[in-house]
Amino acid sequence: MSLxxxxxxxxxxxxxxxxxxxxxxxxxxxxxxxxxxxxxRTGEKDGVEYTFVSESGFQDMLQRGDLIESAKVYGxxxxxxxxxxxxxxxxxxxxxxxxxxxxxxxxxxxxPGAVLVFLTLPSLxxxxxxxxxxxxxxxxxxxxxxxxxxxxxRSMLIFDYVVVNREDELDGAVDQxxxxxxxxxCRVNPRIVQFK
Length: 196
Ligand code: 5GP
What we know:
Elements: E1 4-8, H1 15-24, E2 30-31, E3 35-36, E4 51-52, H2 55-64, E5 67-73, E6 76-81, H3 82-90, E7 95-98, H4 101-110, E8 115-120, H5 124-134, H6 139-153, E9 161-164, H7 170-185
Parallel strand pairs: 1-7, 1-8, 2-7, 3-4, 8-9
Antiparallel strand pairs: 3-6, 5-6
The structure holds guanosine-5'-monophosphate.
The site of guanosine-5'-monophosphate (5GP) has 15 residues, from strand 5, strand 6 and helix 4.
């Protein structure tokens, strides 16, 4: 039975770093690239971090019903391609995708068979430190993101698992993801992801 694993958590929790490390270590997942209207950051490539689309291109996808879930995050649209996810699951692959906390809540309702993993840091101070180190946001954006962290931490209750991303222990977080997959594969009643 294929798993649909949703990796979510507040901005700065390290979702991208974790996914990059999982790929490096060859953790067997189909890694979904979601679409966004956000302009690429330095070094980001179309089709790698995201599929970068125009506002009108995104609206077309929405209207055609091409997206499982879509959300406006910090002023830009993000969305999960339905066809790609469905095909990978049909081929028997385990699928992982990275979305924000509101998107995870939407997926919880739409696809109750998905496995929701909340990635977080050990403390609020760690969030501030990491967001500052990342230097991808302006000061105002950073304040907005920090304010949201607090709010998003409260959403943890709708998730199935929580993984704490401790400093210099990224491989430990990868091990936890592997453990979650192993546990899910041992379920007496496997979760089933059914698209409407
Ligand atoms: P960033 O612009 O920093 O790459 O991403 C901003 C936030 O949008 C992150 O929390 C990321 O996980 C989330 N995100 C990326 N793709 C999607 C998506 O398809 N749907 C939703 N709801 N959030 C997404």
